[in-house]
Amino acid sequence: MKHLLRLLLMMVLMLSVAACGAAGTPAVEESAELVAEPIAEENEPEAVEVEPEPEDEGDTAVSASPPAGDPFEVVATLQDDDWLKGADNPLLTIIDYSDFQCPACAAVAPMLARLAAEFPDEVLVAYRHFPLDHIHPFAGLVGEASEAAGAQGDFWLFHDAIYENQSELNALTSEEEVRDFLIDAADDLGFDVEQFTADLDGGAYTALVAEEQNQAIQAGLPGTPALIVNGQLLQGAPPYEAWVDFLSQLRGMASLEELQYEEAPEMTIDETAQYFATVTMADGAGEFVIELLPQSAPITVNNFVFLANEGWFDGVTFHRVLPGFVAQTGDPTGTGMGDPGYMIPNEIDPNLTHADTGMVAMANSGPDTNGSQWYVTLGDATFLDGGYTIFGRVVEGMEVVQAITPRDPQANPNAPEGDMIESVTIRTGE
């Protein structure tokens, strides 16, 4: 699923939980973005940068030597010492580098627990220690206490209790007070207090907590909570609804893999012949006819004919419809990120232009990244000339295209599904 993480880091700006900053790094309020469309409107607004909100800073307490391997690869890979909750074969893996005194971590913890509980076959949450000693002087000790609890068989029970009572913990001012608080918590939760105290006072897990802290520092994690999502860093956290939506996208992408091809189709069309594609919309919404242009874009037309004959477009929605601009389709996932598993090059005919309504062209995310997504212009889109392959024009039924329901997932990621294509039929001749 090579494109899955692009789903989480693009699309629409989402509100995030404020994060605690690592030493030398101001605490920031991050915005997580979730799927950019392959083509953009002219003069789209630029993303707004969020100003940092500084916290008290100090020196990092640990001087770490790099762990074996690439530092980020180390933190992005599940490890034997991880505390895990959730699926054995997950679609969504979240590694949570956290600090028991960090308020943002306490806010994120219940959301991660809810994800693992409500999607036990799809979500896996892993916990790692990243105590920020410069602002949370007792976080390392609390991390060691959680490991002592885990050694008695219930890390997550202790984990949840500490976060639930974090305000009481953070009101304490000495290590002795914190030690007593932790021992009392273990007693209240039914742990073997004698063993718990021996492990805590004897530093049984000091090295383990320090090693995970060192990994985070060497990987450059900027603060907590630092969530590594399917191998990619996301500081802060989007709201719960965004995670649920992301899971839906992951399911679609997982299903897409079963449909994808290993390589582009062989050339089978006659470049001198005439080809027409009849697009029948579902629910009796009518049909429209596209005259294909093999003389201008032979590779692209061959690709479109192949996919249409394979039924690739059947049941696919128009996932992005902007009146006066374009109606875009061709992605079975409906996210704007799906592709057929291969790419074909741009074919730019300077004699063709997006100025006319009804021109049909390939969407892409850069030169020579065309796949299965295509669009019909709904107005003058001349500014797209030179960047996108025009391979056809609507010759019948443009009123059907203009009637496709508007849908802009960039403005409304929770928009209902778009209008669906029932079939695309290819014929030759006049």
Précis, in short:
With 430 residues, the chain is an alpha+beta fold. The chain contains 12 helices and 17 strands. β10 and β11 form a beta hairpin.
3D structure, described in words:
It is a single chain. This protein is of the alpha+beta class. 30% of the residues lie in helices and 18% in strands. An eight-stranded antiparallel beta sheet has the order 12-13-15-14-16-11-10-17. It has a five-stranded mixed beta sheet with strand order 4-6-5-8-9. Strands 1-3 form a two-stranded antiparallel sheet. β12 and β13 form a beta hairpin. It is elongated and about 90 Å long.
Largest sheet: 8 strands, antiparallel
Helix share bin? 25-40%
Overall pLDDT metric:
86
Amino- and carboxy-terminal Cα gap: 42 Å
Topology:
Elements: H1 4-9, E1 12-14, E2 20-21, E3 32-34, H2 71-75, E4 83-86, E5 92-98, H3 103-118, E6 123-129, H4 139-151, H5 155-164, H6 166-170, H7 175-188, H8 193-201, H9 206-218, E7 223-224, E8 226-229, E9 232-235, H10 240-259, E10 275-281, E11 287-292, H11 298-309, E12 320-322, E13 326-329, E14 359-362, E15 374-377, E16 390-396, H12 398-402, E17 421-428
Parallel strand pairs: 5-6
Antiparallel strand pairs: 1-3, 2-7, 4-6, 5-8, 8-9, 10-11, 10-17, 11-16, 12-13, 13-15, 14-15, 14-16
Helix pairs in contact: 4-5, 4-7, 4-8, 4-9, 7-8
